[in-house]
Design a protein that fits this description.
- The protein contains 5 helices and 10 strands; from the N terminus they run H-E-E-E-E-E-H-E-H-E-E-H-E-H-E.
- By secondary structure, it is of the alpha+beta class.
- The strands form 2 sheets. It has a 5-stranded antiparallel β-sheet with strand order 1-2-3-4-5, with helices on both faces. Strands 6-9-7-8-10 form a 5-stranded mixed β-sheet.
- The radius of gyration is 18 Å and the shape is globular.
């Protein structure tokens, strides 16, 4: 239900278009850090992924080469809410896509690109309805669970939780990337079971 999603505020289409135009200009400017990025193919003819890593964060841009424009991008951010031990294993995706490229499955393709590379994703404190639907769709292919983030510590809540707990701002969803199991992920991040708080390293 919408009330349970803690809906985020989306920027206007004009704001998104302006930002994407600026990104495309930088990609064509010699000397800019966005110039000459490596690329990967997509399943959509004419669209490619260009990507870079900076300080442990991953930036993936979907470029429409035929129309010479950036369709949108996803950033896999580090989270200040988690402690040092969990930091290497938790990334929060945030996306912006131009209106003509929405509902084409581009964000899904980029998320899958990250998950297949072994990234484990955590939702933000708020989600749009579209983002929530995307996570539910990905949960059919990747393991999804709920975690509590409190005082830099992670606690596993399970695969199914009640609506009240889901609505809590400390509750997040986690999608495990390729190669991860829940026990392995909990061990790597120092994640406890709900109700038990381990010492942080």
């Amino acid at each position: 239900m919408a009330m349970e999603l803690r809906i985020d505020v989306n920027p206007s289409p004009q704001e998104v278009e302006k930002e994407l135009e600026a990104l495309r200009a930088r990609m064509k400017r010699r000397g800019d850090r966005l110039y000459g990025l490596p690329q990967a193919a997509t399943d959509v003819p004419g669209l490619v992924l260009r990507y870079r890593e900076a300080d442990g964060e991953y930036y993936v841009y979907v470029v429409d080469e035929a129309r010479d424009r950036v369709a949108g991008y996803t950033v896999f951010n580090r989270l200040v809410e988690v402690g040092r031990r969990a930091d290497p294993y938790v990334r929060a995706p945030h996306s912006k896509y131009a209106a003509p490229y929405q509902r084409m499955g581009l964000a899904t393709a980029v998320y899958r690109w990250g998950l297949d590379a072994g990234l484990c994703l955590m939702s933000g404190a708020r989600q749009s309805e579209g983002a929530h639907g995307l996570w539910m769709a990905l949960a059919r292919h990747y393991e999804l669970g709920y975690v509590e983030v409190r005082r830099k510590r992670l606690a596993y809540l399970g695969k199914h939780i009640d609506p009240a707990r889901r609505a809590d701002l400390h509750t997040r969803m986690v999608l495990l990337g390729r190669g991860w199991t829940l026990p392995g992920y909990m061990a790597a991040t120092g994640m406890a079971r709900a109700g038990f708080a381990p010492a942080q390293h």
